[in-house]
Structure prediction request, 970 residues.
Amino acid sequence: MGLAAPLLLCLTCPVAFGLCAVAAGRSRAWATGLGVAGTIVGATAGLTATVSVLARGRAVTWDAPWSVPSGHLALVLDPLAALFLAPTLLLAATAAVYGSGYLAGADDRRSLGPVWFFFNTLVTSMVWVVLAANAVLFLVAWEVMSLSSYFLVTHDHHQEEVQAAGRTYLIATHLGTLFLFIMFFLMGRAAGSMDFPAFPGVATAEPRLMGWIFLCAVVGFGTKAGFLPLHVWLPEAHPAAPSHVSALMSGVMIKTGIYGILRILTYLGAPAPWWGWLLVAVGLISGVIGVVLALAQQDLKRLLAYSSIENVGIIALAIGLGVLGVAYRVPALAALGFAGALLHVINHALFKGLLFLGAGAIVHATGTRLLDDLGGLLKRMPRTGALFAVGVVAISALPPLNGFLGELVIYLAIFKGMLALPFPADLPFLFAVPGLALIGGLALACFANGFGTVFLGTPRSERSDHGHDPDLRMVGPMALLAICCLAVGLLGWAVVPRLFTPAVALLTPWPPGEIQAPLALMAAQLRVVSLAGAALLGLIGLLAWFRRTLLGGREVTQHVTWGCGYAAPTPRMQYTSVSFAAPLVKVFHRVVRPRVSAIPPDGLFPDHAAFATQATDLFRQALWVPVLTMIVRATQPLRWIQHGSVRSYVLYIVATLVVLLTWGLEP
Amino acid sequence: MSPIQLFPLLAALLLAPLLRSVINRTKAWIAGRRGPPWLQPYRDLRKLLGKGAVYSQTTTWLFRAGPVVGLATVLVAVTIVPMAGVAAPLHFSGDLVLFAYVLALGRLATILAALDVGSSFEAMGASREAAYSALVEPVLLLGLVSLGLVAGGYSLSLIYCGGLAVGWERSPEVVTLLAFVLFVVLLIENARMPIDDPTTHLELTMIHEVMVLDHGGPDLAFIEYAQALKLWLFIQLLVGIAISALAVTGWPGVVIWAIGTVAVGVVVGLVESAMARLRLVQIPQLIFGTGAVATMALLLQIV
Prediction:
């Protein structure tokens, strides 16, 4: 096959260049150049292979022996892997270019070699994760991915909160990996091999085991993806990382969790209906609570991180619908559900990448992420503002951009399920329609708040007043992602069914013909939507021209904003993001539980008053902190084992070895 | 396009502002006043279109884009909603989602334009609009989807052109409940009493009107016209249910449709005359209540 060469280039080149970047030592320009070049060469090579696989709908395989027990360097690039690989590589390349500008401006004089090494390692490991066809190889790549992203999260390790975020991330991701170990152990023992191609046989031999494996997958992969209530690391880690890394983590790294669930589903045989219901429930809960918590945030990057939880929820909901379609043998429901999930995976990578890069530009220019310190940036950063606005429309799932197409496909799946399934199997669909609509409405409120507070009005602080557009290295990648959002929105109907059919067919037990019909129908529906979207853009242009002509030659003047006659307004009197979100936070106060501290005005001539409110994460405070405290207390008596003396640790290792060797000696 | 297809579209574009007169005259009649002339909304639009404009120094291109996007989205929505029992020019299975979401785009544009002036008054209205519309979105979709289930398809054109006629025979109680749901959604989405007071001049009590406080001239004309069209569309969703029960087609159907449209306008006027505005904290309760009715209707349908 001619594809092996570009694939191998993609699997090695970024990390090799990353090593060179470390070798570049203190030269920041060389480190950056090598890092970016490695990712771009790797991504270009990988995208060639991906596009070719997607176009032909056939898999490419490559394997080699590996000395690790049960390990095997087996790689498969099939249509499902290709659909995840394409956004990963696209976002990696754009984020790398952006990062070259972003890191150049940082005021510390540290060497950039390590950052680029870990960035390129992260990119490479994600490719390995998606391509791995052996459980040991998969877990190694998974671990490398977790560790390299940990080092990127703790890039600003001199800040206390960044360290804390890194610790949370490290612990959470390893707890998740533990479940993956269990899952692969169960699967591998039953299959007698750790190679993925051996797995499908297990489903027929031991169908009862499949439920447990599925549960382990949901917990293990769900931790990485950010399903509620396993999400607690996500809103800590994503804001702490440099913005191009946040974009990569939020846009594609958490999707490896989604990929894992889909990949495992292909090996589990006929799913039970409860698998689908579990995913639908998890998806709806993650979606609604994720966006409600996003609404209550006062830090732009935290807001985006919580919104990632919401979007992963939408994807889980769609996968759940697909699983239900397979379980109840409704091919159209399965096809639409899985297609909606895959489309939303790609869409979310595009617009969340765009938004995180935009947030990075704001942090870069103003030095703050706090919404209520910002304001008026659209005048100071017009390009960033316009591109961010595109991201806002896309993520609020509004036509004519890509976000709407993805959600529409999920709606179509729900509609199909409602008509096709008998009572009471269709009962939970009752929650899916208003749930998805509520998520959409809340996302609109959330991003209207975020965009409005940051970009509109007047600057709320000195720092915001200094905002300025970044250079082309940072604007270019954002523009590319924005164009992709529009392109998918207007032209997606033409390519989506063809590209998705082979991948969806992998996830369903039916021949591609069964999948093709509903996806072709979907394409026809999406075509009308794109037509309406194009008409909308045309109408906007026409009306804008009409307005211009009307106002041409007439008196158009500028004046201060009407303030009801108040003579001395200050920027601090503007509505804050907290005030904007207040009506909805009040409705959802049981979930958000805002912590309020107030000094009320006192006396007839009060000289001081203060009010502050902070959203808390219900699951962190009410679930994880008590549970983990309990575990720490329960394991207190074992503390004496770990007391920091290296000699005794060596003793432990020797003892373990002796025990294992004697155990192994037994016939 | 045959004349009978073209007629409702033209009627929507030309007669939508007249509905405002219907409501205002009804209110005036109840209050024992004469009310403004029938053509007053058109005169207002003409006056506004002929004016220049004053913009706040704080504003950007977004403030100028708000009314344009708002009107464009409503115009797209006009092509999705079937009127007088005639299929809409744009239709596909699932277009009711497009209807709700394209209007949401217009809402986002209005909200952002309101935030662009940097005044707390506009932002307060924007915040309320974002909150209540986020809550009412599920109710609207639940209502429309339930209608789709009753009618056997998820295209508005299919629902209102034949589907509901079957639905009325099969489960009239569900359709009646859904008509009620859509009426409340109409009041909320169009900022009418008892949710919002379109006539007040006290910024603190308003939702929609306060958002557009700083717009003037042609921009305000766009906003007013878009509002009139939006009200017209939501009234069509109700009238469509009623005329599906009668199952009259052709030009006689058009006559009945015209009467129905005016009748719903009169009912909105009557509600506005009879009710005081709800306190803001009661609005979510009203929305949740309506949502519960919609859920009940859906349950009745699928059980």
